[in-house]
Design brief:
Layout: H1 6-41, H2 47-71, H3 81-114, H4 120-146, H5 155-160, H6 167-197, H7 203-214, H8 219-227, H9 239-242, H10 244-263, H11 267-311, H12 320-329, H13 346-354, H14 358-382
Membrane topology: Multi-pass membrane protein
Protein name: Rhodopsin domain-containing protein
Pfam families: Fung_rhodopsin
């Protein structure tokens, strides 16, 4: 047991806790986006989506085990037998949930690829790969539970007296599960190449589709990195300190696998989001144009009225009656100025401001009568006396 200072031990446990919380949140965020895409955007919810939701539930149980172990001494040097006995049960639960999470993610990926491939040999490859992965995972699950006998309470005691399985067998199951997990991710990472190889489309579109499908097997990289830390599972002495690195990558691998598998299904969601953003942008632009147009239409009449009042337009009649009508109707405004105000008398307001008052109208009518009477008198004076137009005009002397 190598000595470590308290700060390094605290950072080790805090690092594991942060990773578990981060991937727990990320996994459920992308599972929710995938579920919403398959149910609301394209309405093609399938078994691969149901299996991914199940994987998220199992991964949540795994994260809960990791957080409990870290909160009760995980990542430190534990010497208390009671504490080791208690934490050993949680370690077995975390190992089983990790194996089941990885298996469920692989099954979801297999169903996802089976929905889009058409060739028979590709279906057979997926079935064989999933069968081998399931056999490896189930055997590793039972080995973790029963490696020291059926009674988990005697697990630590039997381990101290060397009555559990030998360490060579521990290494075998640990490495075989990691190896088959890596091979499965490798198969799913290369399968999109064969899917898009014979599709008639442009080359850049082939690369685009192949890249999106390959995201589903991004966990292959994490499986390769985790492979070098598998030895920590077989180091029984100071197990909770030595298993910290493998615990970190055992959290990252299924978390990245869930996120990557969900990313491969979010292309319809991204297209919908882009279309929605463009429509919102166009609607905002149209609204801004309408607001600017209405503002300009309100400013133009006010400017015209101001110019006519300042220049003293001859057609503009100003008196007390017009001012009274203006005071009565000026409070009624258009709907573009304030919401909910009346627009009933806008036309009357314009007439009251620009048209003549009743007294002015009576004055103009009186002037019209006088001018008509004068014109009639002139016509009577200019006309010949009655009967003269009946006498013949006298002839010239010539």
């Amino acid at each position: 047991m190598s000595p470590h200072d308290s700060k390094s031990i605290a950072r080790r446990g805090e690092h594991l806790e942060n990773i578990a919380i981060c991937f727990f949140v990320l996994s459920w965020t992308f599972i929710a986006l995938r579920t919403w895409t398959r149910t609301c955007v394209i309405s093609q919810f399938g078994w691969d989506d149901s299996t991914m939701i199940l994987a998220g539930m199992i991964f949540s149980a795994y994260c809960a085990c990791i957080l409990y172990i870290e909160a009760n001494g995980g990542g430190t040097h534990i010497t208390s037998a009671a504490q080791i006995t208690m934490l050993t049960k949680w370690v077995i639960a975390s190992e089983v949930t990790y194996i089941l999470t990885v298996l469920t993610v692989k099954i979801s990926l297999g169903i996802f690829f089976a929905r889009i491939i058409v060739q028979r040999w590709q279906h057979n490859l997926i079935h064989v790969t999933l069968a081998v992965t399931a056999l490896s995972s189930i055997s590793s699950c039972f080995y973790c539970i029963f490696r020291c006998g059926p009674d988990i309470n005697d697990y630590v005691l039997r381990q101290l007296v060397n009555k559990c399985t030998p360490r060579a067998l521990d290494r075998f199951f640990a490495y075989q599960h990691a190896a088959f997990s890596f091979l499965t991710d490798g198969v799913f990472a290369t399968l999109p190449v064969f899917i898009v190889w014979n599709i008639h489309m442009k080359r850049h579109l082939k690369f685009h589709v192949g890249f999106i499908l390959s995201l589903a097997a991004l966990g292959c990289i994490c499986s390769a990195i985790r492979f070098q830390y598998v030895e920590g599972l077989t180091q029984i002495e100071d197990f909770f300190w030595n298993a910290t690195n493998i615990s970190v990558w055992s959290t990252i691998e299924p978390g990245v696998g869930i996120v990557a598998a969900c990313l491969a299904t979010l292309r319809p969601f991204l297209k919908w989001a882009c279309t929605k953003a463009q429509s919102l942008r166009s609607s905002f632009s149209h609204s801004a144009q309408q607001i600017s147009h209405s503002t300009g239409s309100r400013e133009t009449p006010s400017k015209q009225q101001g110019d006519s009042s300042s220049n003293g337009h001859p057609c503009r009649y100003i008196n007390s009656d017009a001012e009274a009508q203006h005071d009565e109707l000026i409070e009624l405004r258009s709907e573009s100025s304030k919401k909910g105000e009346s627009t009933e008398y806008i036309l009357s307001q314009g007439r009251a401001l620009n048209g003549p008052s009743p007294s002015e109208m009576s004055r103009s009518l009186e002037l019209d009568r006088m001018s008509t009477r004068t014109t009639r008198d002139r016509d009577v004076e200019a006309s010949p006396p009655r009967g003269e137009h009946l006498l013949p005009r006298p002839l010239d002397a010539s």
